[in-house]
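Next comes a single protein record:
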Amino acid sequence: MEEVGLAPEHVRILGRTQNWLRYDVPRHWSRRDCRGHYRGQKQIWFLLRLTGRDCDVCLRASTHPEFDAWRWNSYWVAMDTVVEFKRDVYRAALSELAHYLDRDHERRHTPHGEVGLLVDASK
């Protein structure tokens, strides 16, 4: 809900990464936070099936939006569209979650047969 405005009734969880995935932010990208410098993140990734509608996505659901835009994209996103320091995390998450797509019997797709992916156009 916080990042994309979707409520539980808008999605179905297909799977999640088993372990935390981590990345470090290069020093020239980092910004200060209340503890000093922001260094990176550890994340659990979830693969969700959108059961709602495209118009249910609301990137302005919080007072501090996380994303500038979203689009439908193929599951195996081209890595050159991902900021370099996050690419290993994307590869790991997509590889680990791919087998859940085969288990998803509804196989409900967009008109172009694509799977949804949020694109982080970081501020």
